[in-house]
Fold this protein.
Amino acid sequence: MIFHRLKVGFHRLGSPPTFHKLCRVLSPWLWAGFLLCAAIGLYYALYVVPPDYQQGDSYRILFIHVPAAWQAMASYVIMAILAAIALIWRIRTVEIMTMAAAPVGAAFTALCLATGSLWGKPMWGTWWAWDARLTSMLVLLFIYLGIMGLYAAFEDRRKGARVACILVLVGLVNIPLIHFSVEWWTTLHQGATIRLLGESRMHPSMLPPLIWMTIGVKLMFGAAMLDRARNDLLEQDRRKNWIRQLIGESA
Amino acid sequence: MIAQMSALLKRDLRLALRHGGESLMPLIFLFAVIILVPLGVGPGPNLLASIAPGMVWVAALLASLLALEQLFRPDLEDGTLEQWWVGATSPMALVVTRLFSHWLITGVPVIVFAPLAAEMLYLPDRALGTLMLTLLIGTPILSLVGGLASALTLGTNRGSVLLSILVFPMVVPVLIFSTGGITAAAEGFSARAHLGLLAALLILAVTLVPLATTAALRLNIE
């Protein structure tokens, strides 16, 4: 019974009006959740956690850098799952959602590179190093840009989305490479210090703000993706009947 | 199926041979890079030897990009590509054949003349075998990845810029493992780890790229 209702709900999401309504209802809640989590996380990060004995206050950028880096990779995995769904079941709203995920993921990748670079100048003495982790994040950024460029280059938006979905799935090969780059090549960037299983190699007081920021960033990704998908859908369907009805209702 | 594949291969190779100038482009490109670099960075043997692996590989990479724009486009424009789906027993077999002929035309000449290029850049003799092995394993990956990018951008009208943006991130691992292996061999270490990873990439590309390329072509002729 529950399974049946889930299945019906999943199929309804393929209908643009239902999808549009869902985006409109969910997005404010996600934004509110993001603001709340970020406020708590930033308060802890800036006022509660003591300064590092070696780096002073400058290490605090990690509370943005690390969640952004995680989200840069998580965005890709989410986008790849959406791309697989879009290609297998040929659902147009999912295609639009996949393409909406790419710019948000690219923004997190760029944020991660920028914050890392700002921290690297005083700490490593350089803005940039040709290190395995840094290079693989740069490659990830270019993959995101390639996906966005490919989608934008087609006149037929639907065809562009489907072709770009294939590229999304091919590019998935790079994700394990990025994730394990710090363990396979021990270059300048430090290894993973936070573990889901077992002891983290980080002071416990730093963990709460990091967790709050990570949850906040995930909510923000969802909100931004849904907003972008809704915009794209409205733009593509602007001459369709359901939008006329929608405007008629609110006017 | 074999008959269709060999007919396509023969046609592609014959066309490449008759357009003599075009099929020489990869080689001209390789030697343009190999000759210009010593003039640009200075002819010191130590410096050249240390950048030789990267130079040969970057030249091979760019040479493989040259012909990509025209890999499927003429066939799309005159309708041949549609016939692959109408008439052929397996479109994927023809896609693989086309990628193979691209490798024969752009990859093999570079492999054949690589020893000459290596000598011009003072690459140590003990690294020559590794250079040849990395080219032998790596250039098919370049053709496969490039063919995929070419199929993806087929439906767009500004393919060439997009093509290089798509190819570049996908070939970074090939470049890293190849030049890493050659440098290790030049310094007297074993290159087996690099060659193993490169071979793994080739296996991955050979199994996945034909599927993705066929799917992309199909979407583009719809």
Q: What stands out?
A: Chain A has one domain: 37-46+59-193+201-250. The interface with chain B takes residues 135, 139-140, 142-143, 145-146, 149-150, 153-154, 156, 159-160, 162-163, 166-167, 169-171, 173-174, 177 of chain A (CB under 8 Å).
